[in-house]
Amino acid sequence: MNRRQLLLIGSRLLQVVPVVILATVAIFGLLQLVPGDPAAVIAGEYATAERIADIRRMLGLDRPVWEQYVVWLGHAVQGDLSASLITGQPVLDEVLRRLPNTLLITVLALVLAVLIGVPLGILAATRVDRPTDRIVTTIASLGVAVPNFWLGMILVGFFALGLGWFPTTGAASLTQDPLRALSHAALPALALATGGIAEITRQLRSALIEVLSSQYVRTLHAKGLSNARILWQHGLKNVSLTLLTVVGLVFNRALGATVAIEAVFAIPGTGSLVVASATNKDFPVVQGVVFVLVLIVIGLNLMIDLLYSLLDPRVNRR
Amino acid sequence: MTAQQPLVATRDLGVHFRLSRNTVLKAVDRVSFDVLPGETFGIIGESGSGKTTLGRALVCLEAPSAGQVLHQGRDPYELSRRQLRQHRRNYQVVFQDPNAALDPRMTILRSVREPLDVAATMPRAQRDEVAMQAMERVGLSPDFAARYPHELSGGQKQRVCIARVLTLRPSVIVCDEAVAALDVSIQADILNLLADLQREFGLTYIFITHNLGVVGHISDRVAVMYLGRLVEMGETEAVLARPLHPYTNALLSAEPVALPSHMRTSQRVILSGELPSPVSPPSGCRFRTRCRFAQDLCAAKEPEWSEVEPGHWAACHFAGTLPVTSSPVHGVAEVVA
Amino acid sequence: MDHAVKQPLLEVNKLSAFFRAGRGEVQVTRDVSFTMAPGEMVGLVGESGCGKTVTGLALMGLLPPASSRLEGKILLQGQDLIAMPPSAKRRLRGRRISMIFQEPMSALDPVFTIGHQISETLRAHQDVSRAEARNRAIEALARVGIPEPTLRYDAYPHQLSGGMRQRAMIAIALVCEPQLLIADEPTTALDVTVQAQIVDVLGELCARMGMAMLFITHDLGLVSQTCSRLVTMYAGEVVEEGRVDDILLRPRHPYSSGLLRSLPALTQRKARLPAIPGRVPVRGDMPPGCRFQPRCAHAQLPCTAPQPLRAMQPQGEVRCCRAEELILPGVLPVERAA
């Protein structure tokens, strides 16, 4: 790692700060717009107005929004994401308990998307306008269009209920029972991966077609290199940037889509936690989950930026 | 010739671009010259010499960062915004790439008429008429009017660009590599056309190019640019026959001339090294890093821009004393004549 | 015919290239024939669209097999390249025939060092160790005049100037010491002073390695400086072939004459340039008979019949039925050339 890359990391880390603030302000503001009052929910259906006001005061909800935000952020940066309004448990504990389930299906989905999407993309690009290419691109267009929660339900119906190969719902700990954890994660990951597979196939195909018809590839042919070498060494290194960008995108999208998928498969992950907390107006939990997910996404993008500079010498220019 | 009021002049003109907080690119740096009415003034330079920026500054497409551009002795930037807009119609540019200059979705007639539409000084019917006249003048028959750029060849498209500029009846046309993208036979056609138009409308051309054959053929006087500076200027004959600056000499001798081996006279000078970065040009004389005659003085002191012979200027400490050779282009002209 | 005494290095015989267009085909070049002796420098000249680049790519076997088709023969020391299986042809490329292109930036892979791009060529054709490939790549860089070759080995294309990139491209093409280099407008994208440097390097290396060069260009000046023989193409056909010095003084095809006369440097300053009227015919809509006839000032009735490429005395070939009777101006007016 050279000095330039260190500088890059430094500058990117500095950029993280405004992004985190922007994201948390946005989520804070949006939650204010949600109709309903958390205090009323906690107090129960028959509570008096005074009781509700008391609860509001107790939770600090009577203070101005910006003040609430500053207090929350001040705690958050110290690792204290405050406590659930409903259960009183620390939000961070709850998030960390559920995060592995979500990350397992997301990462598995990403791995599937790369393992299936990359070969399909290469296959299509090296057979442009021939039947193989047509079939692959058609399937890829379908894959982009299919809603993943719907696909999830079909998968459950076929593989879990019909064939009984996989459990229908739930999750298991990867550390305690890896096999069971993977068999639980397989169907939701596949449902999450479909869009990613399609996206990677399409983007890789078009990037590779462009590279393979470029003038420098003509030079490589003129040098007498074999087609295989041109494809696997020069072609892939040149499209790796595109691939990296798409992988980042696919991961971010998959992470977002866990909200629906965890509901379909009844997985106790962060996605289902957000949904449940939002319904209960348990705002600190929602904020906490979003905060952690934003950090994960930013961390991943930072990693991708660093990989860019390793893969493409031109990125280091400035 | 000094009695005439120059149509376009620059006085210590500088055009600077700020690239970052502490780097400034002086694309044009302290350039002074006069262009007289009706003459063809050639500006020769390689990429990075600043010739295109200079051309843009001459027609107010680029504001001076230092010094002045003068149009008939007046600074156009002293005009009001509206007057400037009108004034600019007198000073037109034809660019290298006619494809980029023409809107692919506009018919040829509309493209030619467009400057008049923008000026909006005549009724529509008259504008059409003027545009058709201009097209006819550049040798495009009326049936081109309804066609689109993709139906035309490169030479025809360049004719369209010239017609379009003519509609405004300018007095000065800057031709920025206007024939560089064309094949030789087409290029000859366009050069002939430009010469005809000059005779007919009394046009003044500023011809910016890297092609010595072209510039030598059509220019009355030429200026040579290197890294944002003029290094030599004079009558075309004089510059080609007796270049004063070693860079001009190298440039002229590098030009490949189609002559059988036994008729090629001059020895080729091949420059060593690369063009230095225009952001941090060498101290003293900017050409010294590639000059075979460079001495200590050249690094220490910037050469003066001086009139070495009547009407023949150069910026070299040793101008007139160096054993420079005449251009092979000039050699040919002598042989052929 | 001094070049025909030795066995020719390259013999192109009635080479025609066709491109697939929609359901049909368009003929891009027709019956292109010429020969090159070992070590000979031949210029292939013509205006854009005349088929000179397509001919160069055809010689290299670089036209896309799915969308193009070749007819005729390309004999490299007697071996027919068109009949050769693709894998055998690939082993010739970069080893016995190399090619350099117009745009040195886009012709180099941006994400590999130039050193890698040179040594991989070597390793594709010869059984050399990594270390030896590296040493020979550095030698190649030094040979094309790149300063500090050991440092430049690890440079990426974007870190070099246009001239240096073209030098690196030449180093790649010449590292296996081929017998034939096809140079397709190698200096068109460069400044004149850089062009002079590159042409100088190319000429010197060809002479030192005994390599033949097919110099594809639109610039007759460059050809006269670098080549001994000249092949002129017009509208997909060879119209004239001969020694450069002969053609410059006394072209025998009206198109060659027209090209030379339209060079501004050769006409008196400010005088009218003799341009060629009309425009190049488009592919798929060629005039019957002589393809230059609609633009030719000397056209007569026999010119409407197809013209063969005919051998001339004492040497050279012309595709014009009036070649013997016409006296055409070259770089000099007719009276001066005599």
Automatic annotation (TrEMBL), chain A:
It is found in: Cell membrane. It comes from the Bacteria. Keywords: Cell membrane, Membrane, Transmembrane, Transmembrane helix, Transport. PROSITE patterns: ABC_TM1. Belongs to the binding-protein-dependent transport system permease family. InterPro entries: BPD_transp_1_N, MetI-like, MetI-like_sf. This is ABC transporter permease. The chain crosses the membrane at residues 12-31, 103-123, 135-161, 239-265, 285-308. It is a multi-pass membrane protein. Residues 99-304 form the ABC transmembrane type-1 domain. It holds the Pfam family BPD_transp_1.
